[in-house]
Design brief:
single chain, 14 strands, 11 helices, alpha/beta, 5-stranded mixed β-sheet, about 325 residues
């Protein structure tokens, strides 16, 4: 993929390990009454199962047990809950077989439901189909075009789709890799024919450089502000050409929560709107753990765009995640 400009944002990883010192326990841990089997990559384990969280959960009677991928899952446990975030058809089949054999165990979440968020076309189609009331704001998705191959006719396809540059370019498949979270900004049609497929081309929407990352854990919603791509002026659009690369934006290190922003820019999306949105997506996607990347169109008070949905995001960077996630696990067993 052609790059005609230097990288403007450093690569930020929401799941980067964070050094932490476990707090001293004020009281003895409760006997383990909830056993959670987990299957994570080593990176996910470090970012999510932090010492503070493990101790917090232990005080609530929750024990985390690693799943041995070299042994049959049905021979392990017994578990009350299975948490997982692994890729591949083989693992999906393991989970599906386990669910049939152990319907009494809560699996978070079904592989077929997770798969829906592995594709940036299908993830936003769900949002586009929502018919939410606009009492608190209008929820939209950016117009986009999927390019599955590398034809030289890409510029023509863009024109036929009614899109104009600049365009945000993202990989079509979301597989958890750094590459799948990279994005590019294309300023001219000629450069589009040199990009690497499969990819999604999305219209660029000025949003004052701020993105709202909405974490959803079951029924709980937590919103944080992150810096995003800067606004583009007519001069920027007319004088720039080629492709600019942004390996990753809106990561935890780009927090905008403690910055003195214009109140109109900093104002969070209305809570009632987020609650309706989370409820509808939970129902349609069949998922309990995901986050939404939402922007507010510049110059509007209530026009929002969902530009990405991620499964089991970096909760370790979410404020109060220890309490929120512990309550979520307890609620799963109680219900």
């Amino acid at each position: 993929m052609k790059l005609n400009a230097t990288i403007l944002y450093s690569c930020v990883d929401d799941e980067k390990e964070e050094a932490s010192t476990p707090p001293s326990e004020s009281s003895p841990p409760a006997p383990a009454s909830i056993v959670v089997g987990y299957a994570f990559t080593s990176k996910k384990k470090k970012s999510f199962l932090k010492p503070k969280f493990i101790r917090f959960a232990r005080n609530k009677g929750i024990q985390f047990v690693p799943i041995d991928l070299k042994r049959a899952l049905s021979e392990q446990g017994p578990f009350n809950i299975v948490l997982h975030k692994l890729e591949g058809r083989d693992w999906s089949q393991v989970i599906e077989d386990y669910q049939r054999l152990h319907p009494e165990v809560t699996v978070v979440d079904p592989p077929e439901a997770i798969q829906h968020l592995r594709n940036r076309q299908s993830m936003l189609e769900v949002v586009a189909d929502l018919k939410l009331p606009e009492s608190y704001g209008k929820v939209c998705t950016p117009r986009q075009l999927v390019i599955s191959k590398n034809p030289t006719s890409v510029p023509d396809e863009v024109v036929k789709a009614g899109l104009t540059v600049p365009l945000v370019v993202k990989p079509l498949v979301v597989d958890g890799s750094v590459k799948s979270h990279a994005l590019f900004l294309a300023y001219d049609n000629i450069s589009l024919s040199e990009l690497e497929a499969p990819m999604v081309l999305q219209e660029f929407i000025n949003h004052s450089g701020v993105l709202f990352k909405v974490f959803i854990v079951g029924e709980s919603i937590k919103v944080v502000r992150r810096f995003s791509l800067p606004d583009l002026s007519e001069t920027d659009i007319s004088t720039n050409s080629g492709v600019f690369g942004f390996p990753r934006v809106s990561g935890a290190d780009s927090s905008a929560d403690d910055v003195d922003l214009d109140p109109a820019v900093a104002e969070l999306p209305p809570q009632p709107m987020l609650e309706m949105l989370a409820k509808e997506l939970h129902h349609r996607l069949g998922l309990r753990l995901f986050n939404l990347d939402i922007i507010r169109q510049k110059g509007t008070k209530d026009r929002y765009y969902i530009i990405d949905i991620n499964y089991f995001p970096g909760y370790g960077k979410m404020p109060d995640y220890e309490q929120i996630f512990t309550d979520f696990l307890v609620s799963l067993v109680q219900s």
